[in-house]
Design brief:
This protein is an alpha/beta fold. The chain is about 35% helix and about 15% strand.
């Protein structure tokens, strides 16, 4: 069955029953009844009627049903928020009240389903043309392309429709990484959670489908970045309102609609506009960083938007996050890339549903505090601080985060290297400032990570002094004990080695699944193709100051 907005609501309720079982146990039967009765809605394209503005028949019915489901979703979310702060006695009273309201919701939804029109109104080409002419300046040649793209968009399953819109609001000034989009789609609830399956894999499949359909494309100069293809880039703006998405810039006169659930504010300057209490996703990017006034506005935004699941800040240069962030019980994704944060608020420990914490390029003194160890659902932790080798120190006990798949930017000294060996669920690992005191233990631990797909190792740079100045250099920073890393994880597809190599590691030639290799500051004397020629699946090769020779054998590139 193709996904519809009803399907996504069912996925959301099933996920809540899984993760909020203790709170929702008393009303589990009623929630399961609601899920099962929605099966009667079947597969339909009510979202198309709403996009095209149909105000009668099936369009009116679909709008009424979606409005009711959104009220129900907000009601459940709000109950979970209140339950977290209640005593056991107060929670029992709330559950009883909540159960009564669920009965009313079930009855109202049942009544709406019973009034479903028997046959959906066929989609008319004239309707699509009318919609496009009301949205865009008329251009006969351009309209032909837009009609074709609109038909392609309408025929998408509902989860892929929303995925394309998230591609649009997630985009920064120069495109975004595909793996970042994967995490946003999972956090936004666009992927069904199934036992034994990784939601990230399904999200990647959906992105691949959009790439195959030509709706998004990888950037030529950044193979792991994407952009929305034209004219889908323009078309997505036209259909956003029907799905309660909103985009604005600091210099525009646009106002965030009171019903918007997913908001993107690009090039934010002095203020972040007040948003409604229904907000589920907020993306804010700033060209030159946010002002102090905007930081104050953020506190008010977070106080009001308690249903947030995705919170993304780019280039905002925030110096701190307000304590209010810890009250976002439903938050799944938190990104503050390119900030000046040197610490996270203690309230971060209350984000028990957080899946992604991205603090790449933080303040110079940033260290991860013990509060992060309470983030039991954390799946992705990405870090970098612009000092020394970019390493971030993490607290001992990091291996307690059993759901962690991504761990990037860490320093492995102080016993952390040994802990990594217990984190067998890791799929992506980046270790910086690798040195003699923990290298052997690090390699031993990495060889245990049978699920690892991506590995990046950066050697500790040697500091050299020149009179009154000093700099960190890689020329004499040799990878320690690399020969002991004799058996790399078998599923490894991406490998990065930053630092000097005495010679090309022989084990590199045995990595049959390797597709991407990055060698930086290796300063090799031998021709690396003697090993690289044994990598049959290698597609992307980046070499920066990796080889002292003047040329590489042309046969290597011709065969590739």
């Amino acid at each position: 069955m193709a996904a519809s907005f009803v399907t996504l609501f069912q996925w959301r309720l099933n996920s809540m029953l899984l993760h909020e079982n203790e709170i929702l146990l008393g009303v589990k039967d009623q929630i399961e009844l609601l899920i099962s009765q929605l099966d009667a809605a079947g597969s339909f394209t009510g979202d198309v009627s709403m996009i095209l503005g149909r105000e009668s028949g099936h369009g009116s019915w679909a709008s009424e049903l979606r409005g009711m489901l959104r009220q129900a979703e907000d009601f459940v979310d709000d109950f979970v928020i209140r339950a977290y702060g209640q005593t056991e006695k107060d929670r029992k009273d709330s559950i009883a009240e909540f159960g009564k309201e669920l009965q009313n919701i079930n009855s109202r939804i049942s009544e709406i389903l019973n009034r479903r029109p028997p046959v959906e109104t066929p989609m008319m080409l004239e309707e699509i043309q009318q919609f496009l002419r009301s949205t865009f300046v008329y251009d006969e040649e351009k309209e032909t392309d837009l009609v074709s793209c609109m038909l392609n968009y309408i025929n998408l399953p509902y989860d892929l429709k929303l995925s394309l819109l998230f591609c649009r609001v997630f985009l920064g000034r120069y495109g975004e990484r595909i793996d970042g989009l994967v995490r946003v789609l999972v956090a936004a609830g666009l992927v069904q959670e199934k036992p034994g399956e990784l939601m990230e894999d399904k999200a990647q499949e959906n992105i691949d489908k959009l790439i195959i359909l030509g709706m998004i494309e990888e950037l030529e100069d950044h193979w792991d970045h994407f952009k929305v293809s034209s004219p889908y880039y323009e078309l997505s703006l036209g259909v956003m309102k029907a799905e309660d998405f909103s985009m604005s810039t600091a210099n525009s006169d646009s106002v965030v609609p009171p019903t918007a659930r997913h908001v993107s504010i690009q090039d934010a300057d002095n203020t972040i506009p007040n948003t409604n209490s229904f907000l589920h996703s907020l993306f804010v990017s700033a060209k030159d960083g946010l002002s102090e006034a905007s930081s104050d506005c953020l506190r008010n935004v977070l106080h009001n938007a308690k249903l947030l699941r995705v919170l993304d800040f780019k280039n905002t240069q925030l110096k701190g996050l307000p304590d209010e962030v810890g009250k976002l019980v439903h938050l799944r994704y938190l990104s503050v890339r390119h900030s000046k944060l040197n610490e996270l608020p203690e309230s971060i420990s209350y984000l028990r549903n957080l899946q992604t914490l991205d603090i790449y390029w933080s303040g110079h003194e940033f260290e991860l505090s013990n509060e992060v160890l309470n983030l039991v659902q954390l799946r992705h932790l990405k870090m970098f601080q612009p000092r020394n080798d970019g390493e971030v120190r993490v607290p001992q006990g990091i291996s307690r985060l059993r759901n962690l798949q991504t761990l990037e930017g860490i320093y492995a000294g102080g016993g952390i290297a040994k802990e990594l060996g217990f984190m067998t669920q890791l799929r992506s690992l980046e270790v910086r400032c690798v040195s003699d005191d923990h290298a052997d233990e690090l390699y031993f631990s990495v060889m245990k990570l049978s699920m690892l797909r991506k590995l990046s190792l950066t050697v500790e740079r040697e500091r050299e002094s020149y009179d009154s100045s000093s700099s960190l250099r890689y020329e004499n920073s040799i990878f320690p004990c690399l020969e002991s890393f004799s058996s790399p994880p078998p599923l490894l597809q991406t490998l990065g080695l930053v630092g000097r190599l005495i010679e090309m590691p022989l084990w590199l030639g045995s990595m049959e699944n390797l597709t991407t290799l990055r060698l930086c500051y290796s300063h090799l004397s031998e021709n690396p193709t003697t090993i690289l020629q044994f990598l049959p699946d290698l597609k992307y090769l980046l070499m920066a100051e990796a080889y002292k020779g003047r040329r590489m054998e042309k046969e290597f590139f011709c065969d590739a």
